[in-house]
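Course assignment 3, question 2. Fill in each field.
Student: A.L.
Task: Predict the tertiary structure for the chain below.
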Amino acid sequence: MEIGKATAIFKNIDQVAASDAEKIEAINEVVVLDTHNGITKTDVLHALNWAMKYCFIQETNVFLLERRLKHLLQSDFIRSFDEIDVYTKEYKRDIREADNKNTTGSCGTWEIQYYDNTPRFFICSNCKCRLTYRYNFCPCCGSDNRG
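Answer field:
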């Protein structure tokens, strides 16, 4: 960005119709100048005020997104879509599977696989997924396995 444009954006940071990215770039350009002739203390305070508001808004947005994510990940079903394959570095399940979750309440049962007379895996009768914990519904296919 040219110094003249950066200075113009910096001096009128509240009024100029520049994007946030351009305003940040202008602040960075002006800050590294050898001299700040023509830039008043008021201009600097306005730019600092804008930057603080911008950072606060970004931090607030991150906080709200983090809060929403923590809320969603409390569900075993939702959390099952967050698992990543260690070899391919891709998600193991397609999130669009959640749209196909069976909400009609079709019944299935858990087949229990034993190892040394101890329940080791619970296998869904509907989709045959193997889980180490018994759920009321299958996190993979959504079938009701209470029966």
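Instructor remarks: The radius of gyration is 28 Å. Strands lie at 110-115, 118-124, 130-131.
Grade: pending
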